[in-house]
Amino acid sequence: MKHKNLCKKTKICNGNLGIKRKKMPQINESVMKDFLKFIKKSSKVSKRKVSVNTLKSTQNEISLNVIRERQSTYSKRKKIAPIIVSNDNYILDGHHRWATLRDCNMFPKICKHKPSLKIDAYKIDMPIKKLLKKTHAFKNVAYE
């Protein structure tokens, strides 16, 4: 099935850095602890709640199909894994989790439950371009 790009259909990705999804690092849950340990060697990391409205997309592709699928299964009790954010509020990992909540906020009739406007995030004290370069050096990073 061909995926519709939410970035082309809405303004959700305005100000993105133009990076294709397949070039963006994916930090799987299984290696998250190792990644954070790797990053903490050169930067501060804090876990906090961040407003979805203050975050910016780094990539220029977000699948509308993935968003709609997540929205149909979203519930108030479902725990959403933390995303990773730079100190200049760009998303490193977790674009679809962020966009799911942001889109539910923009179009509440689509979602069964109104989600929180805040998402758990690991905020890394490094600008996105430096963080991307550092992340590419992490041996367990994946690309999809």
General description of the model:
The chain is of the alpha+beta class. The protein is built from 5 helices and 4 strands, in the order ααβαββαβα. It has helices spanning 6-9, 32-40, 64-73, 95-106, 128-136, and strands at 45-51, 83-86, 91-93, 118-124. Strands 1-4-2-3 form a 4-stranded mixed sheet. Strand 2 (83-86) and strand 3 form a beta hairpin. The longest helix has 12 residues, at 95-106. The chain is globular. The model has no long low-confidence stretch (mean pLDDT 89).
User: Which secondary-structure class do the elements indicate?
Assistant: alpha+beta
Strand residue content: 5-15%
> What can be said about the biggest beta sheet?
4 strands, mixed
Specify the overall morphology.
globular
Strand order of the largest sheet: 1-4-2-3
The DSSP helix count reads 5
Rg estimate, integer Å? 15 Å
Helix % is: 25-40%
What is the number of beta strands?
4
Unreliable stretches: none
What string, H for helix and E for strand, traces the elements in order?
Answer: HHEHEEHEH
> What's the mean pLDDT score?
89
Ends apart, CA distance between termini: 16 Å
